[in-house]
Amino acid sequence: MVQQVTRQDFNELMVPIYAPADFVLVRGEGSRIWDQDDKEYVDFAGGIAVNGLGHAHPVALNALTEQAQKLWHLGNGYTNEPVLRLAKQLVAHTFADKVFFCNSGAEANEAALKLARKVGLSSGKGHKSKIIAFKNAFHGRTLFTVTAGGQPKYSQDFAPLPQGIEHLAFNDVEAARAAIDDETCAVIVEPIQGEGGVISATPEFLQALRERCDETGAVLIFDEVQTGIGRTGALYAYMNTGVTPDILTTAKALGAGFPIGAMLTTNKFAQHFTVGDHGTTYGGNPLATAVAGAVFEFINREEIFAGVKERHQAFVDGLNQLNAEYHLFEEIRGEGLLLGIVLKPEYAGKAKDIVQFASEEGLLALVAGPDVVRFTPSLIIPQQDISEGLTRFGRALARFSPK
């Protein structure tokens, strides 16, 4: 007999660190999802940029079930075939020579920052341990990564925090040039700040970071947890910037819903880690890497990237039409299918209200801070679902701002 559960059970049983919607989702197919009452939703949230192929896609499902009949878990005293195949794929299609697998974006960033500190220690330059990060960034929820993230609301209650991390204004070239010095071991940056409001780094800013890292011997880390695996219309966002990092972190859509993360780097930096320096129990397990390998192969095609760009334009056109009617948006920003809908100043702080109305109208959406509604749908969302979702979003806007 299947045990019955309700939304109220969440309040009674779960540690209160989330405030989920007041419905319970039970099944999904493509970019549609249903709750316990069989109400249907169009999914523009995508599991927070995770469900790159939507729900229950055959590519991921078949890879999972096939591997589940072979081998689930070994631990890293042994290796396995799926992890080696996935590592080959990532190395073949990026700047990287070496890969470390883990379970999440936070863990990937933790590994990246630890490696950078080890590189600094090995440099022979004394106090080369400073990390440069940026305001409004988000890099995860471990104590190290939440400190690197430039949002005090996520870190201020957990002091004392790790030291040696300096936060600068995002896209401030002169501040970055001045702050990155011989004591800097790492600069960590998102090509597009996702949680921070869907704000793209300028080419000049990223180029300045690259130049100063080269001049000072600092490691340049790109956090592509949210922007990677086709999200911006390229395999990774760095490929559209003209700037190549020393370390790249990836997760979210890499497993299309199955937990996996990875840190990618070159031989030059990977050699600073030796056996026992870092590790993880589940990272690189056969189930996760088999799914990620199949997902990577499916997404890493020009037709998928072209489709992301086409869908981006469909969203922008539809949102502009809605804004012509309701006059709520200051700006629509982002790349590919990472979209930020910035509310006008008079509606500041109201993004969550709009998302609530949207869910009532049968649309799942996100926020990126209090003033920005965020869409991160499946990379292959059908055009009819885009149209239907925007129609439902329009009904939500009508309720938020009645004429």
Task: Write a structural description.
There is one protein chain. The chain is of the alpha/beta class and 403 residues long. Helices cover 37% and strands 18% of the residues. It contains 13 helices and 17 strands. The strands form 4 sheets. It has a 7-stranded mixed β-sheet, sandwiched between helices. Strands 1-2-3-15 form a 4-stranded mixed β-sheet. A hairpin with a 5-residue loop joins β8 and β9. α4 runs parallel beside α10 and α11 runs parallel beside α13. The longest helix has 25 residues. The protein is globular, with a radius of gyration of 21 Å. The model has no long low-confidence stretch (mean pLDDT 96).
List the helices and strands and how they pair.
Blueprint: H1 7-13, E1 25-29, E2 32-35, E3 40-43, H2 46-49, H3 58-68, H4 81-93, E4 98-102, H5 105-122, E5 130-134, H6 143-148, E6 165-168, H7 173-179, E7 184-189, E8 192-193, E9 199-200, H8 203-216, E10 219-223, E11 247-250, E12 261-265, H9 267-270, H10 286-299, H11 302-326, E13 329-335, E14 338-343, H12 351-360, E15 363-364, E16 366-367, E17 372-375, H13 383-400
Parallel strand pairs: 3-15, 5-6, 5-7, 7-10, 10-11
Antiparallel strand pairs: 1-2, 2-3, 4-12, 8-9, 11-12, 13-14, 14-17, 16-17
Helix pairs in contact: 3-10, 4-10, 11-13, 12-13
